[in-house]
Every structure is written in structure tokens, then in C-alpha cells.
Amino acid sequence: MTDEHTDFTKTTVRTFGPRGSPVFEQEEKTTDLDDLTERVEQTAVPFCTCGAPISGSGDVYRCCDCELICCTRCEIRLSRQHVCPLCARRRFDMDKRTFLTLVFLQHETMTFADLFDVTTQAGEITAVDIDAVANTVVKQGYLADDGTLSDRGREALHVGHQLYGADTDVQSVLDQLRVKAVAEQKR
Ligand SMILES: [Zn+2]
Ligand SMILES: [Zn+2]
Fold first, then answer.
1. 108-127: burial string, b at 16+ Cβ within 10 Å, e else
2. What's the domain count of the chain?
3. How many CA atoms lie within 13 A of 151 on its CB side?
4. What ligand is nearest to the CA atom of residue 50?
5. In angstroms, what is the span from residue 83 Cα to ligand 1's centroid?
6. Which domain covers residue 73, as residue numbers?
7. Cα–Cα distances in Å, from 143 out to 106, 153, 157, 160?
8. Do 158 and 82 belong to one domain?
9. Mean pLDDT lowest for which of 22-36, 60-74, 96-110, 153-167?
10. Cα of 158 to ligand 1 centre, how many Å?
11. How far is the CA of 64 from the centre of ligand 2 (A)?
12. Does 58 lie in the same domain as 101?
């Protein structure tokens, strides 16, 4: 609920319904402070789960998993489907670490074996510590038999870019990889 005061009127805005719901409604009550008459106006404004109002002119996407609506900034495009960030994360078991792992695997600065911590004693393997990300990579089938990213892995990478590509820490990692790739080309 937000209040706005001027010398002559007091406006109270109340909202109903969850974000992402197309039936999200807003009620605006304006009170004339002179004669105390009230005017109530109700509007149905859809809001994205990120809190951005979706105006009539803008494109609206409905997540095909949870059916919530999302704005152009949030929607994640998957071949011919649109999903919201929450469902995209769920579908792909995606978090920032998993995304960066896929980036490193794609740039070959890391191999799948690096996700395992193998302890050997006198040449015998005594313990294998499997990283949580390795579990995701195996479970989701992100790697092809030759150790490169599978189609599903590339799709996950694309989703990760949309989810985390704007984060400054991710950008600095991507920049470093770019610089490294250019340096290697020059050699
Ligand atoms: Zn969704
Ligand atoms: Zn949004």
C-alpha cells in the first residue's frame, strides 16, 4: 500500500493478487481533503514476477510451465517456448555455478574430470568426491560422449546466459575468457 499526499488530495494505492498473475488488480482511492469526498478507481494491471508492470503496448509472455506472465526482460526463450526465470532454473537445475561450469567446459578451460576430486594412495583410488555440479551435468545430460557440450548442454548454456549474463561477476569471467581466446588465436 502506498500513500501520496498533496495539499488537496490523499491517494492510497492498494494491490491485490500475486505478481505474475494476469488478474492482478490495483485499487486507487483518492480523497479530496477539502470536502472529504472519495473516489475509488480499480484497474487490472498485470505485473511480472519481477515487479514490473506490463503495459498494454508491451509484449506479454506466459510461462508454459507455471502459466505466470512475465515481461520482456524476464522471459527466457527456449526454441519455441517461453518460460519464466524460476521455471528455467528448475528445468535446467541451473544456478550460477552450474552455468559457469558449462562456460568453462565449452571454452575447454575445464574438463569433466575436474569436477571430481579423486584421492589416490599408492596408485590406488581411495576416495572420489563428486561435485554437486557434476551430478547436475550427468543427470541433465549436458555432455556428449566426446566430452563436449550436448545439445541439451548448449541449451542450458543459453538459458544461463539469459539468467546470469548481466551479473558483473559473470561478465568479468566472460571477459577474461574472451581475452584469453584472442591471445590464443594470435599465437
Ligand atoms: Zn514459470
Ligand atoms: Zn519481469
1. eeeeeeebeeeeeeeeeeee
2. 2
3. 2
4. 2
5. 5
6. 1-89
7. 10, 6, 12, 16
8. no
9. 22-36
10. 17
11. 15
12. no
Give residue 4 CA to ligand 1 midpoint distance, Å. 34
Q: What is the per-residue pLDDT across 66-106, written as a single tens digit (0 to 9) for each?
A: 888 888 888 898 888 889 999 999 999 999 999 999 999 99
Do 85 and 145 share a domain, yes or no?
Answer: no
Q: Are both 166 and 155 inside the same structural domain?
A: yes
The C-alpha cell of 45 is what? 494491471
**What is the β-pairing status of strands 25-32 and 38-44?**
antiparallel
Residues 69 and 104 in one domain: no
pTM (2 decimals)? Answer: 0.71
